Each structure stands twice: as C-alpha cells, then as structure tokens.
Amino acid sequence: MAEGRQPQDTDANNMMDCTENGDTSSGDLQLSIQLPKHLQGKEKKMKMKISRDATGAKLCNEIEKNLQNIKAENMQLTYKGKIFNLDKTLGEQGVKNKGVFGLALINTEERKREAFVSRIIKGAELLAKRDKDFEGTHFNATDHRREIVNLPESDRAVFLTALILHEVGRWNMKKSDYAQALWFLNQAETEFSRCKEELLNGVDNCGVLNLDITWCYLQQNNIQCHAEARERLERAQAYFNKCFGENQHRLQKQKDKSGRHRILNLRLQVLWGVWFFHDKDLPQSRRNFGEAEELLDQLLVDDLSVSTLVNEGYSTREARLALRAMDGKIEEAKLYIEEKRQEQRAAEIRRQGLHRPGDTDNSEHGSPERDGLPDQINQEPTISANSMPVAGSSLSPPADGTSASAPTASAPAGAQSSNEEDEILREILQYLPNDIDDYIDLSLEDEEAIVREYKTKMSDSERSGS
C-alpha cells in the first residue's frame, strides 16, 4: 500500500469550520476519523464536517480527498464497534454530532468479497421472509427422518446464508481455487455456528463442510493445518454418526439409494488415510485406504454399461448416476432413471408455479451442461440435508453466464417488491442447488489417485525403513 500524506494541523483545522460546540442545525455533522497508525503524524485523528444525509461511501470519498494515494474503495469505516454500511446515510445509521469513526485499509479483493457476502445475506433474508410464498415445503430443511424442520424466519435466513456461502466455496473448489474456496467455506462455518445446535445435529451439512475444508488443506499441501485437520475429520465423523447412525443403521429406513453416504464416507476415509500417513501411523493409514478402495469398487461404474445406456437414449450423466445407485445393474438403472425423470417433471411443474404472471421465458440464460449433454429437466432448488446434502451441489455463478435460469420470487400479497430486491432474489436463487444429485456425479478420479499415491508412499517408506 502506498504511503499516504500525513494530514497537517492546518488541514485538520480547515476541515472543521464549526466551533467546538458548533451549530449543526444545517444538517451537518462534525466528525473525527481515527487514522491507522502508519498514517498518523502529529494528529491521530482527522476532523471533518459532512451532511448527515451523506452516505458512508460519500464519507469515504471526502476522506480520500485529504489522504494522498489512499483510495475510497480500500477504506473500511467502523462506528461504535460495527462496520459502517457504505450504502446508507449517516443519519440512518444513528451517527451523532462529534461522532468518532475508525478507519482501516483493506484490499480491493477483500472489499469485493465482503460486498458479495453482504448481498448473499440480503438475499437470504428476503428468501426467509418470502419462502411461505414458494408453495409448501419448497425451501424448508429436512432432517435425517425426512421430516420438515420448522425454523423461525431469522433462523431460516442464517441457515440459507450458510448454505449459499458453502455452495460458493464448493464452486471455487471445482475451479481448483482452494484459497478462495477456503475463505467462503470459513464464512459458511461462521454462519452455521449461529444456527441452533439441534438443527445442526439433525443434518449433515456441517459434516460435509468440515470434509470440504480438510480437502482444501490437502490440495494446498498445508502441513501447518495438520492438528486442525484431525479435529475437523473427527467433527465430520460425529455429524455423520448423528445423521446416519453409528453404523449407518438409519439409512436402512430411507429409500434413497443414490449412495451419497458412501461418497461422504469415501472422502472421509481418504482424508483419514492421508492424515495418519503424515502422523506416521502407517498401519492405520493402510486400513483407511483399504476401506476407501472397497468403497471405490462399489462406486466406480463400468464404461461399457454407461455406453449401453447412452446408446439407448439416456444421457451420460443419467447413466452414471443410475448405475452407481443400482450397483451397476443395467435394467434396474433404467427404472431408476425413469423414476428420477418423473420426479423432475413434477419438480418442473412446481418450478413453473414460482414465476409471476407475465414473466417471460428466460431460457436464453441456458442450463449448465455436463458431458456435452444438458440435464433433462432441472430440479427445483431444495434446502435439504442429511443423505441429500445441499452442500454437495454444483454452482455456476451468474457472472459466468452459465447458471440455470432461476425462478423469480413473487412478492407477498399486498406488497410490491422493488426491482433491486427482485434482482437480488433472482441472483441468490441461482446459487441454491439446482440438482441434489450433483454431489455424487463425480468421476472419483481424484480420490482414486490419492489412494494410489499414498499406497506407493507407504510401500516406499516401509522399504526404506526395513
């Protein structure tokens, strides 16, 4: 960061035209800006006068005029211990005459991320207020018994915020941008920590989150996080035990045959194998990788079987998911695909019901394609958990132009929503899961490669030690 010019005494005096007990009847406020240490000279504070109708952004612009090489976009203001909203006026935020602001400097990228998170929070709050207008249980959470978890509006907003931040983190993982992914995953964890414990104990989202964060550590080769990785893996295991049962006995009562729990367990065993290898416990590491190999044998699908189904008119994605769910049995996989298509048709009907009268078809936005073939029908976003983790779905942010067209939220009866709120809702809906099967639509090549890599390392280590 370039060095800023130190405000001189004369500058400070000139910036304050009123007396100590100056008249503010004109609507102006006398303020003091506490400067960062590296910008302090004789004066630790900058004094200035500004209208109470000015926004936080306007205040930053005025500060910029008096600090050389310091840009308003890199400023963060705090007032009474809280980050100051740049879009609202000083009067709206209760700023008093002779108020004192703290000034900190942040980089542009951090500013963009903070603005993005603020938009997500706003969108989640709007969804939480309006979800009763989204036909029945469309945006409700379900526990491991698939029963609806009734949440107060404020709790729904926090839960939605955490889910969306988790999704954004996972999207960055898909781009192999693990540093950016970790930032969003940690933000999601902060939001989840605000949820009630009984909710978090009934869903598997926090377990998935801990797996994802540990996976990022592995991909970054972050040895410094070795101790934390163990804590996160233990937490993930604990959450899965609460959701699925100690020996996954609760899954026997569910009809979900997709194998999501096996995908989660596979990644858990792979990460434990890596952890124990670096902890120099090779026998335990070998046991974990052995269990991972057994799961890979169950989850990997035969290319010839996939080709057989594709030749009969099914998409590659449908074939892969169905074969994985039906343990490679082709005829049963066909029935599974037809069942899923019926569910998707019903979901599409509900989805169409979310559009306001007069909405035009926004199919020009397109749908994300996989394996060169589009999905048959996009399933509606579903806030669910446990064996169908929301955190497992793919994301394509609107900025990339690859998101599936999102339904437009209708305003509550008797109220007219603003264009800004509609735009935020439209954007946020694109971040909610479009298809809960995306989490298991994996090649598993990464997991398979890690197992091979570490088994080779263990063999080399054992030979060198003999």
Labels describing this entry:
466 residues, alpha+beta, 5-stranded mixed β-sheet, two-stranded antiparallel sheet, 9 strands
Give an overview of the whole structure.
The structure is a single chain. By secondary structure, the protein is α+β, with helices and mostly antiparallel strands. The chain is 48% helix and 8% strand. The protein is built from 15 helices and nine strands. It has helices at residues 9-14, 56-64, 108-130, 153-174, 178-192, 197-200, 205-219, 226-244, 260-278, 282-299, 303-311, 316-325, 330-352, 419-431, 445-465, and strands spanning 28-34, 45-51, 75-79, 82-83, 99-105, 141-142, 148-149, 369-370, 373-374. Strands 2-1-5-3-4 form a five-stranded mixed β-sheet. It is globular and about 75 Å long. The model is unreliable at 1-25, 133-138 and 354-416 (pLDDT under 50).
| Cα distance spanning the termini | 54 Å
Unreliable parts: 1-25, 133-138, 354-416
Which sequence of SSEs, written as H and E, runs from N to C?
HEEHEEEHEEHHHHHHHHHHEEHH
Portion of residues in helices? 40-55%
If you compute it from the alpha carbons, what radius of gyration comes out, rounded to the nearest whole angstrom? Answer: 27 Å
Oligomer: single chain
Estimate the global geometry from the Cα principal axes. globular
Which sequence of strands runs across the widest sheet? Answer: 2-1-5-3-4
Number of E-type strands: 9
